[in-house]
């Protein structure tokens, strides 16, 4: 009986419109609309872009959820109440361009806007995988990154920071954190703050950003800083007096800014353009390249390795990374090349 109903519905549909271009999913949905309009409406309500966006974001980690919800707020500001009923089919190249123009009013940086556009694209890819839509406007609308400005310090600037004298005690603490970040190959603040211990001369941890395991050899100079700031709850005591790494990070940024201003008052021909934990990471990579360390080794050192067959040889990669870090530290600390 049900089969005959669908055959009859298919016949009516073919008489009223051209269905040869429809995909199997689109044809199925049209038949459901004809035979079960209430179910079709309920499914449509569940599969609006907003609902799919929220479901997709809810399966992410807390930090990633926050990034997606920032995009969600921009979409609400862009569309208002219309966002509730927005479908995937409503979004085309022109729509994406208009949204990008809207973002540009408060975010002139293309890379900042691209975060929101990539989030939308990820929701589209998920919806296509789940056969919710076949529309994909990103075939025509291309997300174009702009070159990231260089965030590296010269070796003279790094030495000036490392060897600075006359700093206030609270400034020394933040300066040493910057030094340790550099000596541990630009380790991210959240990863460094969350370290519990290290064994066999290495720190082993799961990167918060990529959720991949990582290992760094602790050189003698880095170990001296770790021992100086040994913590009770964590490897370092930086979080012993802060609620979380975010509150510490904000204070550290202000502290490093004050150090930069103080050191730039010294008229020695060395200017520190910026001083943040990100600059430690970029500076390490730039100096490694200057010392002719292969790009593959630098990528592995920064945790940029993928899932290729080559990445299986982790011990070989880490040995090369260890040697690279020692070479960079010898150059910065002792002017050895």
Describe the protein in words.
By secondary structure, the chain is mainly alpha-helical. It is 58% helix and 3% strand. The protein has two domains: 2-139, no CATH class; 155-334, hpI Integrase, Chain A (Orthogonal Bundle), CATH 1.10.443. It has helices at 2-16, 24-35, 37-46, 49-58, 62-79, 93-104, 110-129, 155-162, 169-183, 189-194, 220-228, 245-264, 277-290, 295-301, 314-334; strands at 202-206, 213-217. It has a two-stranded antiparallel ribbon with strand order 1-2. Helix 6 runs antiparallel to helix 7, helix 9 (169-183) packs across helix 12 (245-264) and helix 9 crosses helix 13 (277-290). The radius of gyration is 27 Å and the shape is elongated.
Major pleated sheet: 2 strands, antiparallel
Question: CATH architecture of the largest domain, please?
Answer: Orthogonal Bundle
Percentage of β-strand residues:
under 5%
**Overall tally of structural domains:** 2
By CATH, the topology of the largest domain is hpI Integrase, Chain A
Number of strands: 2
**Strand and helix order:** HHHHHHHHHHEEHHHHH
The chain-level mean pLDDT equals 86
* Helical/strand content category: mainly alpha
| Gap from first CA to last CA | 83 Å
How many whole angstroms does the radius of gyration measure? 27 Å
Number of helices: 15
In one word, what is the shape?
elongated
Biggest β-sheet: strands ordered side by side in the sheet = 1-2
What is the CATH domain class of the largest domain? Mainly Alpha
Helix content: 55-70%
Low-confidence stretches: 307-314
CATH superfamily of the largest domain: Intergrase catalytic core
């Amino acid at each position: 009986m049900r089969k005959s109903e669908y055959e009859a519905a298919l016949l009516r549909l073919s008489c009223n419109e051209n269905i040869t271009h429809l995909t199997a999913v689109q044809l199925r949905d049209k038949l459901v609309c004809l035979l079960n309009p209430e179910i079709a409406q309920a499914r449509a309500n569940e599969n609006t872009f907003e609902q799919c966006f929220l479901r997709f974001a809810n399966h992410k980690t807390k930090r990633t959820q926050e990034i997606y919800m920032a995009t969600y707020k921009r979409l609400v500001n862009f569309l208002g109440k219309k966002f509730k009923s927005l479908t995937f089919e409503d979004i085309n190249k022109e729509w994406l361009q208009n949204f990008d123009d809207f973002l540009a009013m408060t975010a002139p940086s293309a890379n900042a806007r691209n975060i929101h556009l990539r989030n939308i694209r990820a929701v589209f890819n998920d919806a296509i995988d789940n056969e919710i839509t076949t529309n994909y406007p990103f075939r025509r609308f291309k997300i174009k990154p702009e070159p990231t400005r260089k965030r590296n310090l010269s070796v003279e600037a790094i030495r000036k920071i490392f060897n600075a004298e006359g700093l206030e005690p609270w400034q020394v603490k933040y300066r040493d954190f910057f030094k340790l970040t550099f000596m541990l190959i630009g380790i991210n603040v959240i990863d460094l703050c969350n370290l519990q211990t290290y064994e066999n001369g290495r720190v082993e941890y799961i990167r918060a950003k990529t959720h991949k395991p990582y290992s760094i050899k602790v050189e003698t100079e880095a170990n001296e800083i770790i021992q100086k700031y040994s913590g009770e709850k964590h490897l370092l005591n930086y979080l012993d007096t802060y609620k979380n790494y975010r509150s510490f990070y904000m204070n550290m940024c202000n502290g490093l800014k004050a150090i930069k201003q103080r050191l730039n008052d010294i008229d020695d021909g060395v200017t520190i353009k910026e001083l943040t934990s990100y600059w430690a990471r970029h500076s390490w990579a730039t100096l490694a390249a200057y010392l002719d360390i292969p790009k593959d080794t630098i990528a592995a050192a920064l945790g940029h390795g993928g899932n290729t067959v080559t990445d299986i040889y982790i011990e070989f990669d880490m040995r090369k990374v260890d040697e690279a870090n020692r070479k960079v530290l010898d150059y910065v600390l002792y002017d050895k090349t």
